[in-house]
Amino acid sequence: MTQVNRRRFLSGGIAVAGGGVLGAFGVSGTAEAAPDARPPQVGGGEIGSGWTFVAADGTAADGSVLASAQNVAGLKPAVVPGTPLTSMIANGEYPDPLYGRIVTDTVPDSLKDTGYWYRVAFRVPRLVPGQRFWLQFAGINYLGTVWLNGTRVGTVEGAFKREVFEVTDIVAEADGVAWLAVLVGKLDYADPPALPSYASGVTRGGRNGGPTGITLKNGPTFFCTAGWDWLPTIPDRDLGIWQPVTWRTTGPVRVADVQVASTLSQDLRTAEVAVSLALDSAAGESVVVTGSLDGQGFRRTVSVPAGASSVVLTSKEIACLRVDRPKLWWPNGYGEPYRYRLAVGVESGGQVHDERTVDFGIRRIEYTTPMRSPSGTVSQCLAITVNNQPILVMGGNWGLDEALKRIPRDRVRAQVRLHRDANLNVIRNWNGQSSTEDFFAACDEYGILVWQDFFCSTEGPPAENVARDLANIRDCIVRFRNHPSILLWCGGNEGPPPQPLIDGLDALVAELDPQRVVLTSSAGDTGKNPVDGYRSGGPYHWVPPAQHFSLNDGTQWPPFHNEVGSYSIPTLEFMRKMLPEASWEHPDDFWADRDVNGNGGNGGGAGYLRLTAERYGEVRNLADFARKSQLMNYECIRAIYEAPVAHMRSAGPYPRTGVIMWMTNPAQPSFVWQMYSHDLEAHSAFYAVQHACRRVNVVLDARTFDVVVANHSREAVRGRVDVSLYGLDGAEFGRASFPVGGVGPADRGVVGSVASALKRAPAEVAFVRLVLRDLRGLEVVRSFSWVESPGREAGFAGLDEMPAAAVSVIAGVSRGPDGGEVVVDVRNIGESVALMLHLQVYDVRTGERVLPATFSDNYVNVVGGESVSVRARLDSDQVRRHPRVGVRVDGWKIDERASRLRGRGVAVTFNRDALDVSPAVPEFGR
């Protein structure tokens, strides 16, 4: 079997390392002493294989026995990092409960009612004089007690706190092998499970956090696993060693922490870098701090006392810490997110004691702008400026990275990359539930700013142990503060934490990271110099696009909205994957466990189905629901972002400064609050976000039918907007051209209106195509909308009466050492509009979708005679696993006989399952 580890997702099987007495338990992290007379003192590795586990109430053995070579009955292979449930799934005890099943019917909720022992044996080096040995835990949920070679070495308290234990004396007595045991304690407070009910119209009893919310009393844990309106109750509550366990050797002086703080001048021409080292020395001595920044080396001799101490390096001592004309870290869409690399170490007598490498960014953030509130007072409102460039925040909320904490690095990077590709610039890490080094490193790489919440929510009582909460907050700040992606710190969700937590958080940020702003909660700030002008509060359900434009027309307070969302139905293929076949055409509790009731908005799942039918005509079957929902997704979610875009900066009196959609990343397979599905397939919601958040855009105001040019860039936009209006038959019935005299940087401008022209539409439904061209007449960006004719609003059922479109689709694939690229050329060879033409890459052998495979554009709209070319990038692993790929095509209405499909080394086919919308299922949605 193959070892399951954090670098793979949903892979199965666990290896037990073979070989003699250790074969039963496994040995990893091998590090042999070097043959040289003066072996290096610095080394280490991850203890990632060979783990076993057992429920604490299923064994009488204690830590002294488990942390030894004694045989212990009942141990089974474990996934580390992972949770008990992920280990049980890997061992075949339970199927994956998120697909085709109701979680609480599949896995007993009693998994939460015990702690768990984890055990592993790993090789250790033979220590040389002065060498020290450290055990490092990056995250245990919820409480951990650590034993090594029969000795209790310490505890870990709270899911988000690291612990480092010096175990030099224990390892020095070991004979090349150390036995590690960790008791993961159960939660102190836990509710019974919250159960799904489709008929109720609400999710899991209509209450987040379980029946009483008592789980929040535990303090720093994954409290959302008690059950939320976007997450089922997770039976083991994601207990376990959920982050890596590593070991490390150093010399007498350990570098316990490195803080890098940069101060960028107002003119962006120079940056001062300060490096603070926290050192832990076994004895007082003189050492040399060595290092390099961007290739420039430095050395400085310092005296280090025994115990904990600190050393601060600035440009006064180290010339290269003053950076002239620095390369800046920019948010996505504004420039390269450049990162500098600092290498730093401590040595004496030519022997390196310890060394660290830190990647950091140089950027300058301003957080507020003065704005007169409705009360008449002028307050400092949340409005982000980075490197002197005003940034309209266009973000997404993450509730949890993955329901069962199956978060290998590659998956986390892919999730963040999708946000980059969707043109977003912020992720709000809701209640800090996704706080990992992999997450922040990916945000650094892709230019995504992070609104970092901490661990308090209004959905239950506050944490009982305030000191534990603050200790976890302190460690999070210290651990992640070097990441340029972190925008701000925030106390919690939708309401203020208790005052001791507020005071403690404010003091911690002032002490540890004073360059960043700290907010009391996502709903408001009560700090010494409070930040105003932002709120949470929805709507969280589907509303017409015009309503979002009304809520964001520049007259509504406040200007920054950090939670607003909608239903977001995935593709037909994914719905069939996440539901049992018996439920495909019959919405039921399986749908409810996938959150179709949302928060009760739209009347729950049944109400949303009725709304879809009212807007787009009778829903005939699951395929018809899928295609109509893609249009529902697109028009509402695009408006969530386009409405603020159309009313930023010069719109008044309250111009929009930011919007963060609830949510963009799904923790589980879901019908709501996402822009891609749990298996990372981008459906229409993703492309709605991508289109709305382009840095230069042309927007049709869904309420007024004004044509707005939005400019997030640093240069003025000039040119013209060409407007074309089409009827249901595809014939053009109107056109106009509006000059764009100059829309300034980070601003918007209304350039014209199509309201009167739409009143002359030949039917109740019309299509509007907007093309922004530069001064040379070259296309910059285009936008396409289907709209109701003003005064004749009757929904979009008429779209089913439009003639089917004839299209030519030609696809090819190229492969290279770093992956491949699928190129698809689409042309409308008929007269009718090709509406929401959807492309999928699939494996020809299996028929399965190749994921993630995000096109440069998708759900494309093409009028007669028009063509587009789109691309999907495949990485080298995808090319290896899928040697023969194809492209599937579906859309609103396609004339298959009149269409032409052709492949160049790649199959091109119609997605007939998705196009099979005619057979009516009378019971569907009832």
UniProtKB/TrEMBL annotation:
Annotated Gene3D superfamilies: Galactose-binding domain-like, Glycosidases, Immunoglobulins
Domain Exo-beta-D-glucosaminidase Ig-fold intervals: 792-892
GO biological process: carbohydrate metabolic process
Residue intervals of the Glycoside hydrolase family 2 immunoglobulin-like beta-sandwich domain: 253-363
PROSITE patterns assigned: TAT
Keyword set, alphabetical order: Glycosidase, Hydrolase, Signal
Glycoside hydrolase family 2 catalytic domain residues: 384-521
Gene Ontology terms, MF aspect: hydrolase activity, hydrolyzing O-glycosyl compounds
Segments forming domain Beta-mannosidase-like galactose-binding: 70-243
Record has Cell membrane as a keyword: no
Record bears the keyword Acyltransferase: no
Pfam families in UniProt: Glyco_hydro_2, Glyco_hydro_2_C, Glyco_hydro_2_N2, Ig_GlcNase
Highest taxon of source: Bacteria
Protein name as it appears in the record: Beta-galactosidase
The species this protein was found in: Amycolatopsis dendrobii
